[in-house]
Amino acid sequence: MKYATKSIIVLAFLSALFSFVKFDHCLNTNFATPDVYTHACYSDLPALFGARDLINHVWPYASASNSVEYPPITGLVMWASALPTHSDKIYFLINVGLIALLFIGTVLLVAKMKPELWYLLPVAPAVIGSLYINWDLWAVASAVLAIYYFDRRLYDYSALALGLSIATKFFPIVLLAPIALIFYRRGQLRDAIRYLIVTAGTWLLINAPFIIFNQTGWWRFFKMNGERGVDFGSLWYALNLFGISTSNLNTLSILLFLIGIAAYAVYFFGLGQLPTLASTSFIVVAIFTISSKVYSPQYVLWLTPLAILAMRDKKDRPAFWIWQGAELIYHLAIWEYLASYSGSHFGLPAKAYAAATLIRIGATIFFAARVSTRSAHPQNLEFLISQSGGYA
Question: Against a cut of 0.85, is the pTM above it?
């Protein structure tokens, strides 16, 4: 067991190191434009260090117009990691070290939950390419932990981890949908209510000081997302590039998400065996990313651990690699498309970028369909029966 753990750590470390090599060119050129796009090594870490005045150690929620566009935990990480330095290079390296540790921890957790397929996470090319774009892994790690605890019926721990995750990046709030479905199928109404209360209470406890003392700065995250128009990577942006205009985007995005969730709920209730949260989370998060107004390349970090947990066995690997290949195509396409806006002598044409976006979405749907049809399998049922019910 010790040898296996060491092997997991070594492979995850090598993956994190290889990802750093990808970003090293931009580090050496001080993240100059258009280099960050042509060499596909753009990162929000140094970009927001200056843009949000973290370089001067300004409190991240002090300004109504220039606060960080993230929930409190991410904002605190951004601010605290800036305190030791005024150098964007050192700031980048500090955050790279923290993200690498989180990645190793996430790989260890996935290995514990899916011991036969965990290695796919550290070798996934789109994951390696995206590790240091943003602070997403802070939320990913706690979201995976919430799933780990939930499937062991340690509901309080799971709810605490999920509340923490939502206070970090907010996207994990969509995990409440499959959690509600599972509780309903089990007839655990009391547990469902308690889970929601603990999750909401954890989120509120973290957010309350910011709501009270930095309300306008704290609200900027929600305001920006509400006012955001069609943005890079989304289905809606690709349609626009093909000349299909979209209006009432907020309504369309929410409607598509609700239709997707409703369709999956119908499928879920038709299953003969109750699947685990690990095997259903990917589907819901995939629906969310497909319907969203934006798809940043680091969102693959949200999806890949969940994708591996949703896989039944090695027979799902070809579908996984098809999906990862599409994500890698998109990863390269977005940067070369942005290069055309930044003074580069070459770049990807708009319709080619739109095609890459639709390929990525199609591959996500394909992989989701593959794993959903195989998600309710005997090993999940046996695992659930083996666990004691109720709270830890």
Answer: yes
